[in-house]
Design a protein that fits this description.
This protein has 163 residues and is mostly helical. Helix content is 48%, strand content 0%. Bound molecules: zinc ion (2 copies). One zinc ion binds next to helix 6.
Amino acid sequence: MFTQDWAPKVSALPEDLRAMISAARKYGLRQEGLAFERSILDAMTMWSHGMAEQEDLRKLSTESAVTRCIRLNHKASTVGEFRTLAERAKHVSHRRHRECTCPECEEMIVSQRCANPDRCYTRAEAILDTLPPKWDPRGKHPEDYEEGGGGKDARRRGGLGDF
Ligand SMILES: [Zn+2]
Ligand SMILES: [Zn+2]
């Protein structure tokens, strides 16, 4: 549903998405009936994401050593960049520890001057967790079903049923 407090944020959205939303409005479609491609979800700016749980996002983004590191050293600003950062923690040899010396952490320390990679992965993940499933590129999305020839059923599962 397009609620009033949601509307002003539209100006901050990437152009493609803005066009889709105005089309949706024009044809009276409900926002939850729209499914966006992962590339669009990834292009959204994470720090000011209008669809995130605002209170949690604000708390988790508060200026601190870890948010500064994410912003300045890892240069993460879009959802996709946060996802890449959070995914580093999935490396087989990564340990959820400050002193981890897995290849991912080593790269973070050496080339991105990160003092505590695991803390940055953890925070990036927590920030991504403020996104509702529909806006979170990490889960399954309609495009994931399309290749298997899922057809109508896939579309229904993907939440396109409102069309
Ligand atoms: Zn590691
Ligand atoms: Zn860092």
